Amino acid sequence: MDRRNFIQSSAPAVLAAGTATSLSEAKSGSDPKYFDIVLAVVDAWRRLDIDGVLVHISEDILWYSHVGSPPMQNKRQMRAFLETFASGITDVKWVIYNHAISGNQIFLDGADDFVMIPEKRRVAIPYLGVMTFRGALIYEWRDYFDRAVFLRYKAGEVPTMDMQRLLDRPGRP
């Protein structure tokens, strides 16, 4: 079976399984509204409110701010990273285009979008994120993005038309 046929035949089953998990959690009352929590994190980060982000994070967070780089392994390390990063950016416009929930995980398709203060350059890059919850707190978070693209945009390169098309999709918030 070639890859296209496998994906086409598997996609409905995968979607149905994810939906069934989400629906059963919602019916049992155990679904702590993961997407609402993510939107609260997004809103706090857009205001560079680090405490507002961290209220949704477990003490033993394992956070890959960039998969491929070593993770932060607790809330104290995450705070230090966020404080340093926040001091160099402004005008944050984190956007979520799509999301899916499976069990206690939420998968995010979005764009990181902010202005680097020293360079006064807007950096907007597509990313995928996976957050795993324990109750209403995020205890594992993985962000996937192309670091080379980030560095090129930080240096002043403008997005290609194809990249701009990805970034211009409607999203939340």
Short description:
The chain is of the alpha+beta class and 173 residues long.
Could you explain how this protein is built, in words?
The protein has 2 domains: 1-30; 32-167, Nuclear Transport Factor 2, Chain: A. Helices cover 41% and strands 30% of the residues. It contains 6 helices and 6 strands. The radius of gyration is 17 Å and the shape is globular.
Ends apart, CA distance between termini: 40 Å
CATH topology value of the largest domain: Nuclear Transport Factor 2, Chain: A
The CATH architecture term of the largest domain is Roll
Task: Please report the first level of CATH classification, the CATH class of the largest domain.
Answer: Alpha Beta
How many structural domains?
2
How many individual helices?
6
Radius of gyration of CA atoms, rounded to a whole number: 17 Å
The backbone outline, from C-alpha atoms, is globular
Major sheet characteristics: 6 strands, mixed
**Count of β-strands:** 6
Going by helix content, strand content and strand pairing, the class is alpha+beta
